[in-house]
Amino acid sequence: MHLSVKHLHGPKKIAYAPDELTIVCIVRNGRPYIKAFIDHHLSLGFKHIVFLDNGSDDGTVAFARDHEHVTVIQSKLPYKKYEGAMIQYLISRFGKGRWSLYLDIDELFDYPFSDVVSLNSFLRYLNERSYTAVVTQVLDMFADRALSSRAHQKDEPLKDLYTLYDLSNIKRNDYKRGSNVVANDDIKRYRDGIRTTLFDVPFALTNHRLIFANGEVRPAASGRGLHRLENARLADLSCVLYHYKLVDGFREWAARVVREESYNPELMLRHYRTYLEVVEQNPDIRIRQATARELGSVNDLVDDGFLVVSEEYRKWAEAERENSAARS
Q: Do residues 273 and 147 both lie within one domain?
């Protein structure tokens, strides 16, 4: 893996404090998403973003190079075979001994009470309690219209266009600890959701993308990506990954994945074949059900019970709110 990587842009090493955070992301042809991705996360307070480009030819690299707080490296090894190795390489190179967040290009991260708790304060909360991972829950976002076949336009404001979500078909199961220590029993593993409603295929929605790479925490051998961890001290709250899969150009995107067979394992490819079959049979398919809700802020997801917070974290957020009011 190491020998395949070429440095294209930005600092090769990133020095940052214990209360600062870097994102690592594998991307291929992510030009429609990348502006929203960079803008959202830098505005949230992230120190740096590292993209591992996997052979983009749509202007992704050129756009990323225009940003100061971005590093771009490249490997053209096949993602289907080397996904796990790529993730581990990014975390070990850019996150060793500190916090890092692994994201896909069509995901935007947020955490409870981010309107009053700065990212630095959020990390201090985790550090002071010696947590080494945070549960992140995937939430599909969509618009109040039929899925369009038009190409997804570059630089679209994803958060403004895709504001709906649906919790009605999300199944909750107890979190099986294994070698992990779980600080809050209210945190569950989620499955399915709106994509299961639409396409009748199962989805795992719970993963652990925010981790402190202390040499002990590691992906479980049976887990794909960061869906399962071993030896982690899981925080007493959960965070969200807004997922922008159900967007314009969905059919063309699914067709490309099926054509290129770019995902592993075979179960993932079967999902994409199902996507394609359903949208070809029903090109005017609408995502919105009667149970859809409009997202105002991440705190709506706390009120809905999708995100979990402890009483201790609520008090931390309230103290931050009072401190902010006193300063103003």
A: yes
pTM value is: 0.94
Q: What percent of the chain stands above pLDDT 90? A: 73
Q: Where are the alpha helices (DSSP H) in 45-128?
A: 60-64, 79-94, 119-128
d(CA 181, CA 324): 33
Q: Using the 3D structure, point to which of 45, 74, 105 is the last residue of a domain.
A: 105
Nearest Cα neighbor of 48 from 106, 87, 9 is 9
Q: What angle do CA 196, 104, 215 make, to 5 degrees?
A: 110
Whether residue 113 is found in the same domain as residue 100: no
Distances (CA, A) of 31 to 25, 64, 78: 13, 9, 20
Backbone angles phi, psi at 74, to 5 degrees: -145, 140
Distance CA 311, CA 237 (A): 10
